[in-house]
Amino acid sequence: MSAGEAFVTLATTDSYCKGAIVVARSLQRHGTTRSTVVMVTPNISEQSRFALKDVFDEVITVDVMDSDDRLHLSWLGRPDLGITFTKIHCWTLTQYSKCVFLDADTLVLCNVDELFERDELSAAPDPGWPDCFNSGVFVFRPSLHTHSRLLDHALQHGSFDGGDQGLLNSVFSSWAAEDISKHLPFVYNLSGSSFYSYLPAFRQFGHNAKIVHFLGAVKPWSSSSQRDESCSHTMEQFVSLWWKEYLSSTPSSEAGKQQEIQEG
Ligand code: UDP
Ligand code: MN
């Protein structure tokens, strides 16, 4: 057990909490020895918070509005950067020496603890622009100094894509060419777009997937694929797998729902 290392995810809505639960359960299913941490905003429901507490080692409430005056002011002017500011809050988790951030829309398919052998900032290429990294999976070192740098950069320059990925790629701009060990293999952040843009490679290498990332507008929890028995596409199979993990891992929250129904 490496104390001081953690997988970290983020959920600012009840929907993303469903994804976060699957992140934690899939990590645990594959025997992670690291801590699991979820950052949440105060607006999530009691029921979601309860379900998260069940599966995560730590549920950390981040209230970006109150935590920093500078941020509060900028928030008023730039509400679009809200989620971004919340995500980069992960750099304040200085009780950990090293972390791996996983988007709440990822599914872990095997033990990926070897990611902690990598240094900041390690990430996989973005399928849309491979000289940028995708910020759905990345290795980082919590540091208040780095957090400040990220905030300052966001306040001064915003983000070229309006989200955390643009900001992080601007700040960690040496990623593309400096050190190949910071390039995670694509199988650590496999997204559906590869299925559509390079099907032969997907067929050849897709079975090596270690972490699947459901990036884009349609998330597993917003689709109805759990009822689809005849999953022909591999991506659909991953969605099925997501549902299997979700339904197998929510006894207490499901019980809570049942109770609510019964109590009318
Ligand atoms: N997120 C969140 N609430 C939101 C949007 C995003 O908590 O309303 C978090 C969540 O962890 C999510 C991550 O930010 O996985 C990045 O957003 P998303 O995965 O939707 O972006 P994509 O990967 O599709 O570009
Ligand atoms: Mn994502």
Helix content estimate: 40-55%
Q: Identify the quaternary structure here.
A: single chain
SSE order, one letter for each helix or strand: EHEHEHHHEEEEHHEHHEHH
Enumerate the distinct ligands. uridine-5'-diphosphate, manganese (II) ion
Tally of alpha and pi helices: 11
Radius of gyration: 18 Å
Secondary structure tally: strands? 9
- What separation lies between the terminal Cα atoms? 45 Å
Biggest pleated-sheet summary: 6 strands, mixed
What structural category arises from helix and sheet content? alpha/beta
State the shape: globular
Q: Give the integer mean of the pLDDT values.
A: 87
Strand content: 15-25%
Low-confidence spans: 228-232, 258-264
Strand order of the largest sheet: 3-2-1-4-7-6
Short account of what is shown:
It catalyses: L-tyrosyl-[glycogenin] + UDP-alpha-D-glucose = alpha-D-glucosyl-L-tyrosyl-[glycogenin] + UDP + H(+); [1,4-alpha-D-glucosyl](n)-L-tyrosyl-[glycogenin] + UDP-alpha-D-glucose = [1,4-alpha-D-glucosyl](n+1)-L-tyrosyl-[glycogenin] + UDP + H(+). Its EC number is 2.4.1.186. By secondary structure, this protein is an alpha/beta fold.
Give an overview in words.
The termini are far apart. Helices cover 41% and strands 16% of the residues. Residues 228-232 and 258-264 have low confidence and may be disordered. It is α/β, with parallel strands linked by helices. The chain contains 11 helices and 9 strands. It has helices at 14-29, 46-55, 64-67, 69-77, 82-88, 144-157, 164-171, 193-197, 199-205, 234-248, 251-263; strands at 5-11, 35-40, 58-61, 98-102, 106-108, 122-125, 133-140, 190-191, 211-213. The chain binds uridine-5'-diphosphate (UDP) and manganese (II) ion. Residues 9-13, 16, 83, 87, 103-105, 136, 215-216 line the site of uridine-5'-diphosphate. This is glycogenin glucosyltransferase. It catalyses: L-tyrosyl-[glycogenin] + UDP-alpha-D-glucose = alpha-D-glucosyl-L-tyrosyl-[glycogenin] + UDP + H(+); [1,4-alpha-D-glucosyl](n)-L-tyrosyl-[glycogenin] + UDP-alpha-D-glucose = [1,4-alpha-D-glucosyl](n+1)-L-tyrosyl-[glycogenin] + UDP + H(+).
